[in-house]
What does this fold into?
Amino acid sequence: MLYFAYGSNLHHFQMKRRCKDSLYLKKINLKNFRLTFRSKYRAADIEQKTNSIVPGGLFEISKSDEKKLDLYEDYPILYKKFYFFYYGKKVMTYTMVKKTQFRFPTERYLNVVKKGYKDCNLDMNFLIRALSEKK
It folds into this structure.
């Protein structure tokens, strides 16, 4: 199945360690969404926003990888699954269940996301904007 990563799972080494079958395919943009950080974990989340995009990584994952991601993402308590279509193919990602207010991520978490942006060759400006934009 196809999986869209936009936070710490962009980090190739971490993703491979967590999901041994995962294969990074390419970078893509999720349209009409924006990146933010929230919850007591100060983790990445996406929310709908017209004329905005969230850059991320497209991965091929196995059924057992999906089960591991479900555990890591605390599905269905913290995150729920969200599906969209990319060139006719169904893609799964996670989005937080409770849309709490913005919480700046921890330095450790943010460094993992930054490394992921580099691994996937994403535009760091999107990350900078998400960190400076409260609403």
